[in-house]
Specification:
It contains 7 helices and 28 strands. The longest helix has 16 residues, at 34-49. It is of the alpha+beta class and 403 residues long. Strands 1-6-2-3-12-13 form a 6-stranded mixed sheet, with helices on one face. A 6-stranded mixed sheet has the order 5-4-25-24-28-15. Strands 7-14-10-11-26-27 form a 6-stranded mixed sheet, with helices on one face. It is 21% helix and 36% strand. A hairpin with a 5-residue loop joins strand 8 (123-124) and strand 9.
Length: 403
Amino acid sequence: MTLPGPDRRYWGHGSPPVGALMPFASALSEHPVSSLATGEVIGAVVEALGERPDLVVLTVTRPHLGALDDIVAAVDGVLHPLAMIGGAAASVVGTGREVEEGPAVSLWAARVGPLVPVALRAGRGTDGEWDYPGWPTTLAFAPTALVLVADPFTFPSPDFLGWVGTRHPGLPVIGGNASAGSRPGVNRLVTGSRTVSEGAVGVLLGAGVSVETVLSQGARPYGRPLTVTRAERNIVHEVAGRPALEVLVAQITDDLGSVDVAGLEANGFHLGRQIDEHLELAGPGDFLVRSVTGVDHASGAIAVDDRMPVGCTVRFHVRDADAAGRDLRASLAGHGADGVLLFTCDGRGTRFFDEPDHDTSALAEALGPVPVGGCFAAGEFGPVGGTSFLHTFTASMALLRDR
């Protein structure tokens, strides 16, 4: 359905063209010449999907960063999508492939029905609170998900995720921070037919497509769930009435073998906080996993990179390549999709796993050769217990199905 005038942006282009096999398509080119790589991915997507998709997600690696404006113009000029988002990243993903650091262009396209593109900036209001110019004041439909790519140097993602959660409770946010640049002004984001170097870009999806979120935090719980009995902000003094460090050491001794202990020594200690306290039996995916950033041997307190309020349920976690692989495959078990958007941590890949294409191979094993697009992120967005957070060492996925 198409509406006249400016409201047309809320609606998809309509039925797929004759000859289109599926409402999702993706392509990845490793050609080092930007114009040739762009032509390859555009041609593959047109052949599979046709022109005028509703949504395009375009990601490129650093070697193509200087040509991103031309790449965006070419994609927009041929495909004419209603919305295009994405940006430059350290590494990109495609169907069954992860290209790390080398030249690559990843193009993912879909017919998803109603959507609203957003291009956001962040600023302090007169009350000192964050404002987000660019967020729509009214919507013609109830959004089912937000796909978001942000610049970590100019956009306060954790604050924004909390802000969205208060205005649209339960709305999942999937995506991540751009990872091409290590300083302000280097990252480039794609929004529509242009690029920007600050803020965040995204798209709100409506009911035209089914969106299921899968989050793999790459960690496995050990020990048993316990209650925080004394804490101050991010400092946990006591767990179950005992010094937190004492409890940590006891659970390591009782529940972990030498291989897991070696993983702790290499990757650090982690504590998971149960988000939904109403769950009688919380599983691994119900804990928000955070790093233990320090310990005080004198007092027995531990510091965590998040607030741990008194009364919350926590569980210690181990994070290593084996645990991450098992968690990803367990998270995907029983799911299906026609298309996938994947935002995986730039600390994963061959930096973490012994094999290339780890996360996209797991997707292919679980879901088959469905079109995959996305990138490696410098911090990933995804929901735990119905609330979206900023994560690290995480694979955040949107599994989409045609309605």
